[in-house]
Amino acid sequence: MSKSSKQSKRGEPRGLEVLLDPALNKSMAFTREERERYGLRGLLPPAIVSQRTQISRALENIRRKDSDIERFIYLQSLATRNERLLYRLVLDHIEEILPVIYTPTVGQACKEFAHIFRQTRGMYVTADDRGEIRKLFDNWPYDDVRVIVVTDGERILGLGDLGANGMGIPIGKLALYTALGGIAPGKTLPVMFDVGTDNAELRGDPLYLGLDRPRLRGVPYFELFDEFVEAVQDVYPNALLQFEDFATPNAYALLRRYRDKILCFNDDIQGTAAMTLAGIHASTRLSGIEFADMRIMFVGAGSAATGIADLMTEAFVATGLSRDEARQRLWFVDIDGLVVADRADTLLPHNLPYAHEHERCDLGAAIDAIEPHALIGATGVAGTFPRAAVERMAAINERPVIFALSNPTSNAECTAEQAYAWTGGRAIFASGSPFKPVEINGETVTPGQGNNAHIFPGVGLGAVMSGARVVTDEMFLAAAATLAEAVADENIRQGTVYPPLSSIREISVAIAVAVAEIAHSTGLARYERPSDGLVAHIKSQMFDPTY
Hints:
Blueprint: H1 16-19, H2 32-37, H3 51-63, H4 68-81, H5 83-92, H6 94-101, H7 105-111, H8 113-116, E1 123-126, H9 133-136, E2 147-151, H10 168-181, E3 188-194, H11 200-203, H12 218-235, E4 240-243, H13 248-258, E5 264-266, H14 267-287, E6 296-299, H15 303-318, H16 323-327, E7 330-334, E8 337-338, H17 363-370, E9 374-377, H18 387-396, E10 401-404, H19 416-422, E11 428-431, E12 438-440, E13 443-445, E14 448-449, H20 456-466, H21 473-485, H22 489-493, H23 504-521, H24 534-541
Parallel strand pairs: 1-3, 2-3, 2-4, 4-5, 6-7, 6-9, 9-10, 10-11, 11-14
Antiparallel strand pairs: 7-8, 12-13
Helix pairs in contact: 3-5, 4-5, 4-7, 5-6, 5-10, 10-20, 14-15, 14-21, 17-18, 20-23, 21-23, 23-24
């Protein structure tokens, strides 16, 4: 029995210390010999129960709950009691459990975070800690953190500013890193970068757990974040830093500030981009249209949408197009209509490369004029794909590509049923949160779920295993290509452009190998190429929750 934490320095734990430690506890599965060795006799009922039986008990408890939020609370409690049981449960029943521990349920969990709070997990770095952030890390018990997910809570999914309630996102993302990417729980660290909130309703809630003040902004904000990054680099120099759910201006500013200096990426910008690009690549097997010939229209012009366009630009360039030609294939519609050149003075810097010469018009007229093959939504607002727009897409495309990517499910730009009904069943549909199969024209069509969980665990695993100095666009292009190749012909025949969730752990390994290969071949890897090969080495290092 071992644990890579500061607690292990005090000698081997015994008795209740074992049972109260989620990394060590396996409850009724301890053997007679283990019970004797660790001083557990008399502290447990006499029966010895296998992990498989424990999973059956956990499932029984989950399924008797009346709502997904109650299931979420149960699973969070399980994580604080027996983390190996939790992750074995996730892996064995991923289709059922993943939507509970992450999207769409995590959105509701974040909204209610202060009201369902049971036990702290992760670290809280606040505006009051200026000058002392490095000291905070001395209180974290684990010495070898490899993946940190941080948010400031300003743009949680499509729900807006949730302040410190946004801690549910780093906790959830890192649960997926463990379950799907094989990063051991003790090597992960969720961080809430709490600089206040502008959500007056939250600040008026007596149960709210965060700083009760308006958000810190401008130079003081970035100076505080610099201090945080410097502390991370000092304490955990081998850690990957993943940015999550920052508002668009800060998301881009932080990515530009650090992407060429430290091992980091923004999942909303780069992970979403790779996931979407993979789905577009897979869609060509249904539409018959070559990727290099596609025109793509985005509804929404925030960090997610422009991040997708930036990576797609690189993908188009790889087909032989110039950068200008590539960008001419990518068009945006925001709340003010088509993003065009004569709106340049009102646009943010990341929008300017896609502000093309064209007259101003609304979504419907833009579809008629541009004739896109794919419509991609990243608005965070339900219903922003109106029926007329989807029908126009169907009028100009035999197999229109309709991606409604906003999370949670209630914020999707349209539902799967709407997309299929409005296109006569011809839509190639994907969404950010899951939709059930749809019966249309006497056939069952299975919507694809474009979940970032297909991408970020593998990218992070590959970066950590190779000791990459930075994460590059080339790595995300490779991740997208690997994911697209993983979509089986059977999935394509069912109308699905993403592989089933049950295969993500294997896909994570394939993506990790592709990322590590780039790190080694481009001189970005700090570690030597493993003698036993990348596949075998990476698999041997992955966390196995079985006991």
